[in-house]
Amino acid sequence: MATTSDIRRGLTIVLNGKLYRIVDFLHVKPGRGGAFVRTKLKAIPEGNVIEQTFQAGHKIEIARVENRPHQYLYKDATGYHFMDMENFEEVTLQEDMIDGAQFLKDGQEVNILFHADTETPLSCELPVAVVLEVVYTEPGMKGDTASGNAQKPAKLETGVEVRVPLFINTGDKIKVDTRDGKYIERVKG
């Protein structure tokens, strides 16, 4: 058992029999009364975020979880298939367990979070940014905009559509943020 002084971002805890990852926290010491810790917790694997307040010194149960590197293989009717990079075992996950599934492409490396005691996969995290090829976008015309930040839709190789600057063309490779689906930059080569 740990206490509230051990709370940090990314820590996975057990609360009311369910697993939660700490997204954010704040230690508060009011002028009167006892100190407390205000937290934002993300349910695993559901993904909903709740707020929870703990009194200072409150005992919390830390869950044993492990991040393991996997490679995305393919998707079929049973789900998304991944291969463990160390022992080559295959794991199948449902779409709701994957953050940013629309950005997955064959051969991509991801981290899968496992509950260490039960060996159960809990969630899958993609890298913060991925490089994808633009398979279709309308050509941008010079002078289409009064400001320099005009954007147009572009369809990527995974089938997802994102907004890109006018100078991006079909065949270009771009870097996309997997957290919010926003264009970051064009990749040379």
**Helical proportion, percent range:** under 10%
CATH architect. name of the largest domain: Roll
Q: Determine and state the CATH class of the largest domain.
A: Mainly Beta
Give the number of helices.
0
Radius of gyration computed on alpha carbons: 21 Å
Low-confidence stretches: none
CATH topology of the largest domain: SH3 type barrels
In terms of DSSP E residues, the strand content is over 45%
Q: Structural class per helix/strand content?
A: mainly beta
Termini distance? 51 Å
Number of domains: 3
Provide the residue-averaged pLDDT: 89
Number of distinct beta strands:
17
The ordered H/E elements are EEEEEEEEEEEEEEEEE
Could you please describe the fold and organization of this structure?
The protein has strands at residues 2-3, 12-15, 18-28, 36-44, 49-55, 59-62, 65-76, 79-84, 90-93, 98-99, 109-115, 120-125, 129-137, 151-156, 161-165, 173-177, 183-187. The protein has three domains: 2-62, SH3 type barrels; 65-125, Nucleic acid-binding proteins (OB fold (Dihydrolipoamide Acetyltransferase, E2P)), CATH 2.40.50; 129-187, Nucleic acid-binding proteins (OB fold (Dihydrolipoamide Acetyltransferase, E2P), Beta Barrel). It has a six-stranded antiparallel β-sheet, with no helix packed on it. The chain has a six-stranded mixed β-sheet with strand order 9-8-7-11-12-10, with no helix packed on it. The protein contains no helices and 17 strands. The chain is mainly β. The mean pLDDT is 89.
